[in-house]
């Protein structure tokens, strides 16, 4: 990851606020790893953190116009990532209504026994 100077970041933020997609892309390139770290701290799962960051970056792009002070870009982005992570966790944790495949290792032997008992009884 390349470090960005504060004045360069402020210029990129100003350009992104006026709709410059390339400027926003540069900001993402500079700060994506930080955003992943913030999301992973809350989600404790790297794949879920990726999803959170993707959603947060879309939200940040759509709401760039609400950022009044370009110097506050990093705290602003951090707040968006944090809010997205909390929202994701509130909606049923990292998997929502889905169950991780690892859970089926516990359920499968029970299903297998039921199926075998069904076959033996017949």
TrEMBL record:
Segments forming domain RNA polymerase sigma-70 region: 27-91
Keyword list, A-Z: DNA-binding, Sigma factor, Transcription, Transcription regulation
Family from the record: Belongs to the sigma-70 factor family. ECF subfamily.
UniProt name for this protein: RNA polymerase sigma factor
Taxonomic source organism: Paenibacillus allorhizoplanae
